[in-house]
User: What shape does this take?
Amino acid sequence: MILPQAVRMVIPPIINVLIALTKNTSVAGGFFVVELIGASRAVINERGDEVIAILLSVAAFYLLVTITLGLIAGAVEKRVAVLR
Assistant: This one.
């Protein structure tokens, strides 16, 4: 049957696309209720004296999300690895 083999082959590229989407856009509505950059703008408008801390927090959160997705991707890729 070809379908199980095909699924095993497309999982790593799909996970890589998901990681790239998370890193390259601020449109994270699929993961977050409120888009992160928009929320940070609202907080910056309220607390303009802490802009650097807020933006560093946003960057750290994106880093946390992408590293977690990368670790999950590595585990899934090992599990469904195709012997070549």
The chain is about 75% helix and 0% strand. The chain has a mean pLDDT of 77. The chain has one domain: 2-79. The helical segments are 2-24, 36-46, 51-79.
